[in-house]
Amino acid sequence: MTQSTRERADLDFLAGKRMRRTRQTGWSRAMVQETDLTSRDLILPLFILEGENQREKIATMPGVERLSIDLAIEVAKEARDLGIPALALFPCTQNDRRTEDGRESYNPDNLMCQALRAIKKAVPDIGLIADVALDPYTSHGHDGLMDGEIILNDESVAVLIKQALNQAAAGADIIAPSDMMDGRIGALREALDAEGYENVILLSYAAKFASAFYGPFRDAVGSGARLKGDKKTYQLEPFNREEALREVEQDLLEAADWVMVKPGMAYLDIVREVKDRFEVPVFAYQVSGEYAQIEFAAAAGALDRDGAMMESLIAFKRAGCSGILTYFALDAAKKIRG
Ligand code: PBG
Protein backbone atom coordinates (compact mmCIF):
# COMPACT_ATOMS: atom_id res chain seq x y z
CA MET A 1 0.00 0.00 0.00
CA THR A 2 1.41 3.36 -0.91
CA GLN A 3 1.46 6.17 1.57
CA SER A 4 -1.29 8.07 -0.20
CA THR A 5 -3.58 5.02 -0.46
CA ARG A 6 -3.23 4.48 3.26
CA GLU A 7 -4.00 8.10 3.97
CA ARG A 8 -7.10 7.95 1.81
CA ALA A 9 -8.29 4.76 3.55
CA ASP A 10 -7.83 6.44 6.92
CA LEU A 11 -9.75 9.46 5.74
CA ASP A 12 -12.60 7.33 4.36
CA PHE A 13 -12.86 5.49 7.64
CA LEU A 14 -12.96 8.74 9.58
CA ALA A 15 -15.64 10.00 7.21
CA GLY A 16 -17.86 7.11 8.30
CA LYS A 17 -17.29 4.71 5.46
CA ARG A 18 -17.51 1.07 6.62
CA MET A 19 -17.45 -1.77 4.09
CA ARG A 20 -19.01 -4.19 6.54
CA ARG A 21 -22.16 -2.10 7.03
CA THR A 22 -23.61 -3.59 3.86
CA ARG A 23 -22.79 -7.15 4.88
CA GLN A 24 -24.67 -7.18 8.19
CA THR A 25 -27.76 -9.09 7.14
CA GLY A 26 -28.92 -11.55 4.51
CA TRP A 27 -31.32 -9.09 2.95
CA SER A 28 -28.78 -6.30 2.66
CA ARG A 29 -26.26 -8.63 1.12
CA ALA A 30 -28.94 -9.79 -1.33
CA MET A 31 -29.64 -6.18 -2.37
CA VAL A 32 -26.09 -5.65 -3.59
CA GLN A 33 -25.32 -9.09 -4.99
CA GLU A 34 -23.59 -8.46 -8.30
CA THR A 35 -24.06 -11.73 -10.15
CA ASP A 36 -26.24 -14.77 -9.80
CA LEU A 37 -26.30 -18.39 -10.72
CA THR A 38 -29.37 -20.02 -12.23
CA SER A 39 -30.02 -23.36 -13.89
CA ARG A 40 -29.98 -21.48 -17.22
CA ASP A 41 -26.23 -21.06 -16.73
CA LEU A 42 -25.55 -24.79 -16.58
CA ILE A 43 -24.78 -27.22 -19.38
CA LEU A 44 -24.66 -30.92 -18.57
CA PRO A 45 -22.06 -33.15 -20.27
CA LEU A 46 -23.18 -36.77 -20.76
CA PHE A 47 -21.07 -39.81 -21.63
CA ILE A 48 -22.94 -42.19 -23.89
CA LEU A 49 -22.56 -45.93 -23.84
CA GLU A 50 -23.73 -48.59 -26.27
CA GLY A 51 -26.57 -50.94 -25.37
CA GLU A 52 -29.74 -50.69 -23.34
CA ASN A 53 -30.24 -50.10 -19.65
CA GLN A 54 -26.47 -49.87 -19.22
CA ARG A 55 -24.69 -47.68 -16.72
CA GLU A 56 -21.01 -47.71 -15.83
CA LYS A 57 -19.32 -45.85 -13.04
CA ILE A 58 -16.20 -43.84 -13.87
CA ALA A 59 -13.66 -44.44 -11.11
CA THR A 60 -11.93 -41.09 -11.51
CA MET A 61 -15.21 -39.14 -11.55
CA PRO A 62 -17.24 -40.19 -8.51
CA GLY A 63 -20.95 -39.65 -9.16
CA VAL A 64 -20.64 -39.55 -12.97
CA GLU A 65 -21.68 -42.52 -15.10
CA ARG A 66 -21.58 -43.53 -18.72
CA LEU A 67 -25.18 -44.16 -19.76
CA SER A 68 -26.84 -46.04 -22.58
CA ILE A 69 -29.13 -43.90 -24.71
CA ASP A 70 -32.38 -44.98 -23.01
CA LEU A 71 -31.01 -43.92 -19.62
CA ALA A 72 -29.51 -40.73 -21.07
CA ILE A 73 -33.01 -39.79 -22.24
CA GLU A 74 -34.27 -39.99 -18.66
CA VAL A 75 -31.45 -37.73 -17.50
CA ALA A 76 -32.18 -35.34 -20.37
CA LYS A 77 -35.78 -35.05 -19.15
CA GLU A 78 -34.61 -34.43 -15.62
CA ALA A 79 -32.21 -31.74 -16.85
CA ARG A 80 -34.95 -30.07 -18.89
CA ASP A 81 -37.33 -30.11 -15.93
CA LEU A 82 -34.65 -28.43 -13.81
CA GLY A 83 -34.26 -25.64 -16.38
CA ILE A 84 -30.90 -26.74 -17.78
CA PRO A 85 -30.92 -25.47 -21.39
CA ALA A 86 -28.49 -27.85 -23.08
CA LEU A 87 -26.56 -31.10 -22.96
CA ALA A 88 -23.08 -31.79 -24.32
CA LEU A 89 -22.80 -35.37 -25.56
CA PHE A 90 -19.65 -37.49 -25.64
CA PRO A 91 -19.65 -41.02 -27.00
CA CYS A 92 -17.67 -43.83 -25.47
CA THR A 93 -17.00 -45.48 -28.80
CA GLN A 94 -16.78 -49.26 -28.94
CA ASN A 95 -13.11 -50.23 -29.01
CA ASP A 96 -13.30 -52.21 -32.24
CA ARG A 97 -14.53 -49.07 -34.00
CA ARG A 98 -11.49 -46.96 -33.16
CA THR A 99 -9.13 -46.74 -36.09
CA GLU A 100 -6.07 -44.84 -37.26
CA ASP A 101 -8.27 -42.66 -39.49
CA GLY A 102 -11.19 -42.20 -37.08
CA ARG A 103 -13.71 -43.06 -39.77
CA GLU A 104 -16.38 -44.00 -37.23
CA SER A 105 -16.74 -40.25 -36.61
CA TYR A 106 -18.66 -39.87 -39.87
CA ASN A 107 -20.63 -43.10 -39.74
CA PRO A 108 -24.25 -41.83 -39.85
CA ASP A 109 -25.25 -44.57 -37.48
CA ASN A 110 -22.50 -44.14 -34.92
CA LEU A 111 -23.29 -44.00 -31.21
CA MET A 112 -23.22 -40.19 -31.16
CA CYS A 113 -25.75 -39.91 -34.01
CA GLN A 114 -27.99 -42.53 -32.44
CA ALA A 115 -27.93 -40.54 -29.20
CA LEU A 116 -28.57 -37.21 -30.95
CA ARG A 117 -31.57 -38.60 -32.84
CA ALA A 118 -33.07 -40.38 -29.86
CA ILE A 119 -32.67 -37.52 -27.38
CA LYS A 120 -33.87 -34.92 -29.90
CA LYS A 121 -37.00 -37.01 -30.49
CA ALA A 122 -37.73 -37.71 -26.82
CA VAL A 123 -36.75 -34.30 -25.42
CA PRO A 124 -37.07 -31.81 -28.28
CA ASP A 125 -36.88 -28.75 -26.05
CA ILE A 126 -33.34 -29.17 -24.79
CA GLY A 127 -30.33 -28.02 -26.84
CA LEU A 128 -27.88 -30.66 -28.01
CA ILE A 129 -24.20 -29.84 -28.25
CA ALA A 130 -22.02 -32.16 -30.29
CA ASP A 131 -18.29 -32.20 -29.66
CA VAL A 132 -16.23 -32.24 -32.85
CA ALA A 133 -12.82 -33.90 -32.52
CA LEU A 134 -11.52 -37.31 -33.45
CA ASP A 135 -10.25 -38.54 -30.09
CA PRO A 136 -13.24 -40.79 -29.30
CA TYR A 137 -12.73 -42.51 -32.66
CA THR A 138 -8.98 -42.81 -33.21
CA SER A 139 -6.85 -45.74 -32.15
CA HIS A 140 -4.14 -43.27 -31.02
CA GLY A 141 -6.48 -41.05 -28.99
CA HIS A 142 -5.51 -37.79 -30.72
CA ASP A 143 -8.04 -35.23 -31.91
CA GLY A 144 -6.75 -35.26 -35.48
CA LEU A 145 -5.16 -37.58 -38.02
CA MET A 146 -1.53 -38.58 -37.61
CA ASP A 147 1.35 -39.09 -39.94
CA GLY A 148 4.03 -40.70 -37.82
CA GLU A 149 4.33 -38.39 -34.83
CA ILE A 150 2.76 -35.41 -36.59
CA ILE A 151 -0.84 -34.33 -36.14
CA LEU A 152 -1.97 -33.30 -39.60
CA ASN A 153 -3.95 -30.08 -39.79
CA ASP A 154 -5.79 -29.70 -43.08
CA GLU A 155 -6.36 -33.43 -43.52
CA SER A 156 -7.87 -33.48 -40.03
CA VAL A 157 -10.13 -30.53 -40.79
CA ALA A 158 -11.49 -32.39 -43.82
CA VAL A 159 -12.55 -35.29 -41.56
CA LEU A 160 -13.91 -32.96 -38.86
CA ILE A 161 -16.19 -31.44 -41.49
CA LYS A 162 -17.57 -34.88 -42.32
CA GLN A 163 -18.04 -35.54 -38.61
CA ALA A 164 -19.86 -32.24 -38.02
CA LEU A 165 -22.17 -32.65 -41.03
CA ASN A 166 -22.97 -36.12 -39.76
CA GLN A 167 -23.87 -34.72 -36.34
CA ALA A 168 -25.92 -31.87 -37.81
CA ALA A 169 -27.88 -34.37 -39.89
CA ALA A 170 -28.59 -36.35 -36.73
CA GLY A 171 -30.03 -33.30 -34.96
CA ALA A 172 -27.17 -31.46 -33.26
CA ASP A 173 -28.20 -27.87 -32.54
CA ILE A 174 -24.74 -26.68 -31.58
CA ILE A 175 -21.51 -27.89 -33.11
CA ALA A 176 -18.61 -27.51 -30.70
CA PRO A 177 -15.18 -28.19 -32.21
CA SER A 178 -12.71 -29.08 -29.45
CA ASP A 179 -9.87 -30.23 -31.71
CA MET A 180 -7.88 -26.95 -31.94
CA MET A 181 -6.90 -27.45 -35.59
CA ASP A 182 -6.28 -24.23 -37.53
CA GLY A 183 -8.98 -23.00 -39.86
CA ARG A 184 -11.66 -25.41 -38.75
CA ILE A 185 -14.22 -22.81 -37.71
CA GLY A 186 -14.33 -21.11 -41.12
CA ALA A 187 -14.29 -24.44 -42.91
CA LEU A 188 -17.08 -25.82 -40.73
CA ARG A 189 -19.26 -22.72 -41.18
CA GLU A 190 -18.89 -22.90 -44.93
CA ALA A 191 -19.66 -26.61 -45.06
CA LEU A 192 -22.64 -26.34 -42.70
CA ASP A 193 -24.11 -23.46 -44.69
CA ALA A 194 -23.59 -25.26 -47.99
CA GLU A 195 -25.55 -28.22 -46.68
CA GLY A 196 -28.45 -26.12 -45.37
CA TYR A 197 -27.41 -26.04 -41.72
CA GLU A 198 -27.01 -22.27 -41.54
CA ASN A 199 -28.93 -22.20 -38.26
CA VAL A 200 -26.64 -24.62 -36.49
CA ILE A 201 -24.68 -22.68 -33.87
CA LEU A 202 -20.87 -22.90 -33.80
CA LEU A 203 -19.49 -22.93 -30.28
CA SER A 204 -15.74 -22.96 -30.64
CA TYR A 205 -13.47 -24.39 -27.99
CA ALA A 206 -11.35 -21.41 -28.96
CA ALA A 207 -8.95 -21.20 -26.03
CA LYS A 208 -8.33 -24.78 -25.07
CA PHE A 209 -5.19 -25.41 -23.09
CA ALA A 210 -3.07 -28.57 -22.98
CA SER A 211 -4.12 -29.54 -19.49
CA ALA A 212 -3.54 -32.21 -16.89
CA PHE A 213 -7.11 -31.61 -15.76
CA TYR A 214 -8.54 -33.65 -18.67
CA GLY A 215 -7.33 -36.92 -17.17
CA PRO A 216 -10.65 -38.30 -15.89
CA PHE A 217 -12.45 -37.36 -19.13
CA ARG A 218 -10.01 -39.43 -21.12
CA ASP A 219 -10.86 -42.37 -18.85
CA ALA A 220 -14.54 -41.69 -19.37
CA VAL A 221 -14.38 -41.81 -23.17
CA GLY A 222 -11.71 -44.50 -23.21
CA SER A 223 -9.02 -42.50 -25.02
CA GLY A 224 -6.59 -41.99 -22.14
CA ALA A 225 -4.77 -45.30 -22.17
CA ARG A 226 -4.34 -45.07 -25.95
CA LEU A 227 -2.98 -41.55 -26.05
CA LYS A 228 0.60 -41.40 -27.27
CA GLY A 229 2.45 -38.28 -26.19
CA ASP A 230 0.60 -35.09 -25.39
CA LYS A 231 -1.57 -32.58 -27.23
CA LYS A 232 0.82 -29.65 -27.06
CA THR A 233 1.20 -29.24 -30.81
CA TYR A 234 -2.43 -28.21 -31.03
CA GLN A 235 -3.71 -27.25 -27.57
CA LEU A 236 -2.46 -24.05 -25.91
CA GLU A 237 0.49 -23.71 -23.59
CA PRO A 238 -0.77 -22.86 -20.07
CA PHE A 239 1.84 -20.08 -19.84
CA ASN A 240 0.21 -18.08 -22.63
CA ARG A 241 -2.50 -15.47 -22.41
CA GLU A 242 -1.94 -13.44 -25.56
CA GLU A 243 -1.89 -16.53 -27.72
CA ALA A 244 -5.23 -17.56 -26.23
CA LEU A 245 -6.71 -14.18 -27.11
CA ARG A 246 -5.40 -14.48 -30.66
CA GLU A 247 -7.08 -17.89 -30.94
CA VAL A 248 -10.37 -16.39 -29.81
CA GLU A 249 -10.07 -13.46 -32.20
CA GLN A 250 -9.27 -15.78 -35.07
CA ASP A 251 -12.28 -18.01 -34.38
CA LEU A 252 -14.58 -14.99 -34.15
CA LEU A 253 -13.23 -13.75 -37.49
CA GLU A 254 -14.02 -17.19 -38.89
CA ALA A 255 -17.64 -16.76 -37.68
CA ALA A 256 -17.75 -18.64 -34.41
CA ASP A 257 -21.04 -17.68 -32.74
CA TRP A 258 -19.83 -18.35 -29.22
CA VAL A 259 -16.44 -19.17 -27.77
CA MET A 260 -15.29 -21.40 -24.96
CA VAL A 261 -12.37 -21.35 -22.58
CA LYS A 262 -11.14 -24.63 -21.19
CA PRO A 263 -10.29 -25.74 -18.53
CA GLY A 264 -12.27 -23.38 -16.35
CA MET A 265 -11.12 -22.47 -12.89
CA ALA A 266 -7.43 -22.15 -13.60
CA TYR A 267 -8.23 -19.99 -16.65
CA LEU A 268 -10.84 -17.53 -15.41
CA ASP A 269 -8.45 -14.67 -16.18
CA ILE A 270 -8.81 -15.63 -19.84
CA VAL A 271 -12.61 -15.75 -19.56
CA ARG A 272 -12.74 -12.23 -18.15
CA GLU A 273 -10.39 -10.87 -20.73
CA VAL A 274 -12.27 -12.45 -23.62
CA LYS A 275 -15.52 -11.05 -22.25
CA ASP A 276 -14.13 -7.54 -21.84
CA ARG A 277 -12.30 -7.48 -25.12
CA PHE A 278 -14.75 -9.12 -27.54
CA GLU A 279 -18.18 -8.77 -25.91
CA VAL A 280 -19.43 -12.10 -27.21
CA PRO A 281 -20.98 -15.03 -25.32
CA VAL A 282 -18.21 -16.85 -23.51
CA PHE A 283 -18.61 -20.31 -22.08
CA ALA A 284 -16.22 -22.23 -19.91
CA TYR A 285 -15.79 -25.90 -19.25
CA GLN A 286 -15.33 -26.93 -15.64
CA VAL A 287 -13.48 -30.02 -16.77
CA SER A 288 -13.31 -33.51 -15.38
CA GLY A 289 -10.21 -32.94 -13.25
CA GLU A 290 -11.77 -29.87 -11.64
CA TYR A 291 -14.85 -31.89 -10.80
CA ALA A 292 -12.70 -34.74 -9.44
CA GLN A 293 -10.70 -32.32 -7.28
CA ILE A 294 -13.81 -31.20 -5.45
CA GLU A 295 -15.39 -34.66 -5.23
CA PHE A 296 -12.29 -36.39 -3.89
CA ALA A 297 -11.46 -33.59 -1.47
CA ALA A 298 -15.04 -33.68 -0.16
CA ALA A 299 -14.97 -37.48 0.14
CA ALA A 300 -11.81 -37.15 2.22
CA GLY A 301 -13.60 -34.73 4.50
CA ALA A 302 -11.41 -31.82 3.47
CA LEU A 303 -14.20 -29.53 2.33
CA ASP A 304 -17.94 -29.11 2.13
CA ARG A 305 -18.89 -30.55 -1.22
CA ASP A 306 -22.00 -28.48 -1.99
CA GLY A 307 -20.39 -25.30 -0.76
CA ALA A 308 -17.34 -25.84 -2.94
CA MET A 309 -19.53 -26.82 -5.89
CA MET A 310 -21.63 -23.67 -5.72
CA GLU A 311 -18.69 -21.38 -5.03
CA SER A 312 -16.80 -22.77 -8.01
CA LEU A 313 -19.78 -22.17 -10.31
CA ILE A 314 -20.36 -18.66 -8.99
CA ALA A 315 -16.73 -17.87 -9.81
CA PHE A 316 -17.43 -18.67 -13.47
CA LYS A 317 -20.37 -16.26 -13.50
CA ARG A 318 -18.35 -13.55 -11.80
CA ALA A 319 -15.64 -13.99 -14.43
CA GLY A 320 -18.21 -13.25 -17.16
CA CYS A 321 -19.41 -16.63 -18.39
CA SER A 322 -22.71 -16.96 -20.24
CA GLY A 323 -22.74 -20.61 -19.28
CA ILE A 324 -20.70 -23.37 -17.70
CA LEU A 325 -20.25 -26.92 -18.87
CA THR A 326 -20.16 -28.81 -15.61
CA TYR A 327 -20.60 -32.32 -14.29
CA PHE A 328 -22.28 -30.67 -11.29
CA ALA A 329 -25.12 -29.34 -13.48
CA LEU A 330 -27.92 -31.54 -12.10
CA ASP A 331 -26.91 -31.22 -8.46
CA ALA A 332 -26.30 -27.49 -8.72
CA ALA A 333 -29.66 -26.96 -10.45
CA LYS A 334 -31.38 -28.92 -7.66
CA LYS A 335 -29.59 -26.88 -5.05
CA ILE A 336 -30.62 -23.64 -6.76
CA ARG A 337 -34.23 -24.86 -6.82
CA GLY A 338 -33.87 -25.40 -3.09
C1 PBG B 1 -11.53 -33.94 -26.63
C2 PBG B 1 -12.09 -33.31 -25.42
C3 PBG B 1 -11.47 -33.30 -24.17
C4 PBG B 1 -12.38 -32.74 -23.29
C5 PBG B 1 -13.53 -32.39 -24.02
N1 PBG B 1 -13.32 -32.74 -25.36
C6 PBG B 1 -10.16 -33.84 -23.71
C7 PBG B 1 -8.94 -33.60 -24.45
O1 PBG B 1 -8.79 -32.63 -25.21
O2 PBG B 1 -8.03 -34.41 -24.30
C8 PBG B 1 -12.14 -32.59 -21.82
C9 PBG B 1 -13.31 -32.44 -20.95
C10 PBG B 1 -13.06 -32.76 -19.53
O3 PBG B 1 -11.92 -33.01 -19.08
O4 PBG B 1 -14.06 -32.79 -18.78
N2 PBG B 1 -11.43 -33.24 -27.77
Q: How would you sum up this structure, described in words?
A:
By secondary structure, the chain is of the alpha/beta class. It has twelve helices and twelve strands. The protein has an eight-stranded parallel β-barrel with strand order 1-4-5-8-9-10-11-12, surrounded by nine helices. The two termini are 42 Å apart. It binds ligand PBG. Ligand PBG binds next to α7.
- Using the 3D structure, state the CATH architecture of the domain at 37-261: Alpha-Beta Barrel
Major beta sheet, specifics? 8 strands, parallel, barrel
The geometry reads as globular
Mean pLDDT: 96
CATH superfamily of the domain at 37-261: Aldolase class I
Strand content: 15-25%
Major sheet: arrangement of strands: 1-4-5-8-9-10-11-12
The level-1 CATH class of the domain at 37-261 = Alpha Beta
Specify the oligomeric state.
Answer: single chain
Bound molecule types: ligand PBG
- Written as H for each helix and E for each strand, in order along the chain, the element string is HHEEEHEHEEEHEHEHHEHEHHEH
Please work out how many helical segments DSSP would assign. 12
Radius of gyration: 21 Å
Give the class from helix and strand content and strand pairing. alpha/beta
Cα(first) to Cα(last) distance is 42 Å
Q: What is the tally of beta strands?
A: 12
Low-confidence runs of at least 5 consecutive residues:
none
Helical proportion, percent range? 40-55%
* CATH fold annotation of the domain at 37-261: TIM Barrel
